[in-house]
Amino acid sequence: MADDKHNPSIDETPISPVQRRDSLEKHLQQRPDPKDLKDRHILLDTNAAPALQSAAQELERQRATDSLKKSLEKRPEREELIERMWHSTRKWLTEDLLNGMSVLGNILPDSTAAPALQGQQRELQKHMRADSLEQKIQHRPKPEDLIKEGILEPDEDPRSE
């Protein structure tokens, strides 16, 4: 027991009331303001009493969950979206399909890839189309070859414009 009084890790020097007050004032001046604490999500940004804040937060979370569930229940199925798309764009869809384009592919991609990978899949397809187009442009016939084969008339030479 006598050794406890001589323990070097505990400072037992008395502090005067003036030093204690100054120390407290110094710490209070350095304390962050409530707005900063709310911005850092340390204090809740609410007008509710502290005893009711957790209940209010849980109620808000439950309200958001219910809203999300209702929205998901109302969400149309894939087949219904395709049917709506077909009826609303029948004319343009037929023209686009004849031109080799797929309108439905932009809205509802027909992909077996995981949803997390579909964005990367679209990006890869985009780059592959760009590469294919670049290759086709590099290998297209020159205007003089087209004139020789009779596909273009000499006055239709695109270089002369």
Query: Which series of helices and strands comes N to C?
Result: HHHHHHHH
How many helices? 8
Shape: elongated
Q: What's the main sheet like?
A: none
β-strand percent reads under 5%
The strand count comes to 0
Name the poorly predicted regions.
none
Question: Termini separation (Å)?
Answer: 106 Å
Radius of gyration: 36 Å
Helix content: 55-70%
Query: Helix/strand/pairing class, anyone?
Result: mainly alpha
Mean pLDDT: 80
Structure description:
- With 161 residues, the chain is mainly α.
- The protein has helices at residues 17-30, 34-39, 50-74, 78-88, 90-98, 103-107, 115-138, 143-148.
- It contains 8 helices and no strands.
- The mean pLDDT is 80.
Sequence-ordered SSE layout with sheet pairings:
Layout lengths: L16 H14 L3 H6 L10 H25 L3 H11 L1 H9 L4 H5 L7 H24 L4 H6 L13
Task: Describe this protein with a few key phrases.
single chain; mainly alpha; 161 residues
What's a quick, concise take on this entry?
With 161 residues, the chain is an all-alpha fold. It is 62% helix and 0% strand.
